[in-house]
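About this split. The held-out portion is used to measure sequence recovery: a designer receives only the structure tokens and must propose an amino acid at every position. Recovery is the fraction of positions where the proposal matches the reference. Here is one held-out target exactly as it appears in the evaluation file.
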């Protein structure tokens, strides 16, 4: 496919700086781009690559100037580039259609219009699936579970009984929704299981990555709010409440009964203790150990997690410990020498 830079600018409502007639034949990252490709620059730390990239043109933010290549300035380079990719490489994924003959459907299963059920899917009694939803091969859906419209369940997903999943939700392979919460009472050294009789509620427009576990609540419900996106290998424990449009990155672990606000970012391998609150717009840095509640609009890092600027100061002090130890050892030696002279 070939487009002029001017045509691309019109598609993304951008402003061309340079030759609008530049021919674009492909899309690529700024490092991988070749002649004829268009790329994008969203993070200022990669600005040095502008002089090195072989791309024919670059999508940038509106504050970029004096670039030695044609550019298209936009409000959001990442979003604009997504639109360009879609125009050059339309989605070629073909989802299953119809109900495969090996699928096993229980009693009183309700299927909306154009629902697709892949091979060896098992649905227990009283399951409800909305219009245009797709359930890939090998998935299990427990009794009385409700799944909305335009939802996509990839292969080998397990969704236990009495779960509620909204519209336009995507769940990737290997994920388990509604597994028992980790609840035990210890009596005389023996661990007795506490029944987990609650449920899980997943709102509209949520995406859940591969091999994620979302535990059912002990009594009420575990909630994932509208528009929240969850990466692979995340653990969400029983009775956790996650607000809207939050981001949870790979290998994060959230302990039971923690409440997370809207637009929260939890970076990779962050760990949260139970029964705390994370305020709206908070950012929990990678590998942060969250041992207490975090106020809204706050960034924390380190272990135990502190306000980010304070954590940087503490880390700087830790890095200086070998030097300080050496200096103190030398000072101690000098003091001992002075004391020895004074005592003569």
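Reference sequence for scoring:
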């Amino acid at each position: 496919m070939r487009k002029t830079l001017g045509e691309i600018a019109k598609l993304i409502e951008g402003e061309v700086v340079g030759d609008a007639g530049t021919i674009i034949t492909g899309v690529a990252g700024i490092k991988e781009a070749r002649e004829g490709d268009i790329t994008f620059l969203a993070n200022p730390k990669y600005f040095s690559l502008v002089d090195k990239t072989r791309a024919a043109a670059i999508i940038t933010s509106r504050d970029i100037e004096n670039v030695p290549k044609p550019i298209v300035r936009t409000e959001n380079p990442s979003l604009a580039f997504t639109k360009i990719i879609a125009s050059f490489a339309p989605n070629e994924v073909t989802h299953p259609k119809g109900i495969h003959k090996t699928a096993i459907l229980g009693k009183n299963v309700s299927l909306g219009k154009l629902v697709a059920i892949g091979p060896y899917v098992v649905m227990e009694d009283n399951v409800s699936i909305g219009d245009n939803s797709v359930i890939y091969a090998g998935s299990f859906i427990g009794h009385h579970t409700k799944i909305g419209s335009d939802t996509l369940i990839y292969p080998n997903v397990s969704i236990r009984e009495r779960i509620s999943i909204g519209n336009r939700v995507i769940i990737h392979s290997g994920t388990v929704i509604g597994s028992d919460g980790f609840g035990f009472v210890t009596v005389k050294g023996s661990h007795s299981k506490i029944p987990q009789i609650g449920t899980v509620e997943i709102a509209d427009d949520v995406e859940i990555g591969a091999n994620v576990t979302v535990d059912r609540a002990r009594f009420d419900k575990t909630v994932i709010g509208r528009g929240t996106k969850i990466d692979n290998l995340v653990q969400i424990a029983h009775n956790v409440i996650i607000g809207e449009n939050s981001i949870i990155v790979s290998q994060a672990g959230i302990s039971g009964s923690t409440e997370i606000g809207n637009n929260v970012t939890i970076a990779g391998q962050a760990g949260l203790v139970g029964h705390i609150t994370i305020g709206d717009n908070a950012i929990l840095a990678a590998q942060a150990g969250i041992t207490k509640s975090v106020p809204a609009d706050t960034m924390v890092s380190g272990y135990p997690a502190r306000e980010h600027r304070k954590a940087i100061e503490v880390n700087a002090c830790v890095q200086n410990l070998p030097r300080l130890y050496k200096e103190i050892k030398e000072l101690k030696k000098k003091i001992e020498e002075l004391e020895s002279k004074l005592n003569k």
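Annotator remark: The chain has three domains: 3-88, 104-308, 311-344.
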